[in-house]
Give the backbone structure.
Amino acid sequence: MPRLATTADVFSAVAEPRRRRILGLLADGERPVNDIVRRLRIPQPQVSKHLGVLRAVDLVTVRGDGQQRLYSLNAIRLRPIHDWVAGFERLWNERFDRLASCLDDLQKKEPPRES
Amino acid sequence: MPRLATTADVFSAVAEPRRRRILGLLADGERPVNDIVRRLRIPQPQVSKHLGVLRAVDLVTVRGDGQQRLYSLNAIRLRPIHDWVAGFERLWNERFDRLASCLDDLQKKEPPRES
DNA sequence: TTGATATATTCCGAAACAGGAATATACGAT
DNA sequence: ATCGTATATTCCTGTTTCGGAATATATCAA
């Protein structure tokens, strides 16, 4: 089997840096396509295609407004990523560091056993 | 240009579900390859290859122990993902929802203007 | 209708991955 | 040295992707 489709899940969709930048822009509010084009300096067809991927995983929604199409972020769909990575947060937090070094200390205090 | 390499950054490396599961396992502590193989029911060569990708982006580290190779998670490298997605957190939080509806109310109270 | 602006879609080509199978390497035990 | 276990690497192939250019669609204006 080949690589996982970019529209398979949110993780894959967000793997592409330009798509992350687009999402970052949309965090400030809905924008027409050409606004994204100008701000990110990405050719318009590419922006439309990236938006298509983001729409496929429901990370953005569209609203027609005249001849413009206003895209807005559907942030809740980022939550699976947030939740997944949050499960690892304790592993790099300061408190955990202290706990780890504490355990190290305990281990050092154990009586040396012959191997 | 073709697709972004999976070893290009942490986002791409983590886009693959099996790699996320491997990282989840390693969150409990270091493990030899065959332990991952047995727990996740993934053929050994594939596990080795996935571990190779994770190693390339420094998400895991290896330690030789006899004929085993003990892999452990380098959780700090997940932090860029955490930080990136945390920037969106307010957009789906309850407090933000209240703020948003508050703003909606304010907008409704504005005097209707002729277009 | 014709034209202009905004956006989407299609076709192309060059990567690059993920799985499968087979094989190679590394290390320990006898 | 030889065998067995643990792990890594190679080769192959189907599939997907991204970018680029060109083109198509949609909507508004005159």
